[in-house]
Amino acid sequence: MAESSVIGAGTVVSGHVRGQGSLEILGRVEGDVNVTGNVVIGPAGRVRGNVSGAQLTIAGQVQGDLRGTHAVLLEAGARVAGDISGPRVGIAPGALARGHITTDGEPTPALARSAAHAPAPARPAAPVPSAARPAARLAPPAPPIAPPPAARLAPPARPLPAPPPKLEAKAPPVAPKAPPQLQPQPQPQPQPQPQPQPRKAEASRAAPDATEAPRNRSPVELEFTPVRPIKPEPRRPPPPVVPVISKGTKAKKKKSHD
Amino acid sequence: MAGTVIGEGLTIEGDISGDEEIVIHGILRGRLTTTDAVTVGGTAVVGADITGASLSVAGQVTGDVTASERVDIQAGGKLVGDIKAARFTIADGASFKGNVDMEV
User: Residue A30 — φ and ψ, nearest 5°?
Assistant: First the structure.
């Protein structure tokens, strides 16, 4: 079996590092790192290049993309400028990350985004396609039984393009938007049932609930909040699908901040 | 413990430089420069010019070697290249091809 390797604190490697086994980087690497085992980049470690491995534990600096087939963990003090991808991505408080973060490598930006923002990305192992999950989680408990097929097709179109900066405002609408599309098919009677008719239901319910309240909630809370409180806001026209601030713009802003 | 260890199965294509001991069991292509000792393990394949305080070869090395102290080729070791070192030993069973400059 391949043994583990160490690049010591006083060592600089300029070139590509690849192969089997795990690797601990305490010094500097100017080039890509591509191993089958785990990669640990110590607090003093610096890598300029892409890093890929099973589980990446970063406490140092990386200028390049990170790809962990098992997990990517950024520890306090880590500084990463580059894209991060892996089935599990952890960013500890005190770590800096700049770039695109994707969990699971699935082509569902919306899901990846919410997972990235939520520190605990533990997702229910549901057989439902990931695209349908956001809607299913927020939708009323009753309808999901019938609508799933519709949910799979419909929601992705809407929630996906929603802009990242408006995460808080955007998250709630997912619930109301999806149901209206789903309900009509399985349950033709719209009025009497409060759940299938989120728009009307919410309108009537708007009075008791403070409309702003749900908005201020963090995305994490929203995931576990019952549907009721969320509903009230959707009565207003849905937020624009096109991002107010494009992703690139935001990134530039951030850069200037730093 | 050695400062830097290139494990078996690991390949480095490029330069390594540093100020600490380096042990290689894997594959290195490029250049190796350090101010401390260099050890080339039995499983190692090194195609690089090596500069260090001392060099011990049990695997294969192809490249010129400059050592400020000594170079030892262990039994089973193989070195092809010119050597410049104050002291130089070749164990029985080792193979070597190249010039030696011991700075008399």
Answer: -110, 85
- pLDDT tens across B43-83, in order? 999 999 999 999 999 999 999 999 999 999 999 999 999 99
pLDDT of A154 strictly over 50: no
Q: A137 and A101, same structural domain? A: no
Q: Does A13 touch chain B (CB under 8 A)?
A: yes
Query: Is the pTM of the predicted complex or chain greater than 0.80?
Result: no
- Domain span at residue B87 reads 4-91
% of chain A surpassing 90 pLDDT: 38
**A4: confidence class by pLDDT, cuts 50, 70, 90:** confident
Which of A2, A3, A6 lies nearest to residue B4, judging by beta carbons?
A6
At B52, list the tokens.
């260090």
Of A148, A165, A171, A159, nearest in space to A110 by CA: A159
Among the partner residues A6, A14, A30, nearest to B5 by beta-carbon distance:
A6
For the CA atoms of A137, A143, A144, A149, the dihedral, rounded to the nearest 10 degrees, stands at -130
Say whether A4 and B7 touch across the interface (CB within 8 A): yes
More confident residue, A99 or A249: A99
**Interchain pair A13, B15: CB under 8 A:** yes
Q: How many domains does chain A have?
A: 2
Inform me whether the C-beta atom of residue B30 falls under 8 Å from chain A C-beta atoms: yes
Quick check: is A204 in a domain?
yes
**Residue range(s) defining the domain that contains residue A169:** 133-235
Task: Note whether residue A73 is domain-resident.
Answer: yes
- Structural domains in chain B (count): 1
Q: Which residues contact B6 (CB under 8 A, 6 or more apart)?
A: A5, B12, B22, B23, B24, B25, B26, B28, B44
Please tell me whether residues A204 and A137 are part of one structural domain: yes
Q: Is the Cβ pair A9, B20 closer than 8 Å?
A: yes
Q: CB–CB of B51/B66 below 8 Å?
A: yes
B2 touches chain A (CB under 8 A): yes
**Residue A218 domain-assigned?**
yes
Q: Map tokens 């409309």 to a residue.
A: A211
Calculate the average pLDDT of chain B: 94
Q: Give the single-character DSSP code of A238.
A: P
Residues A140 and A194 in one domain: yes
In a domain? residue B13: yes
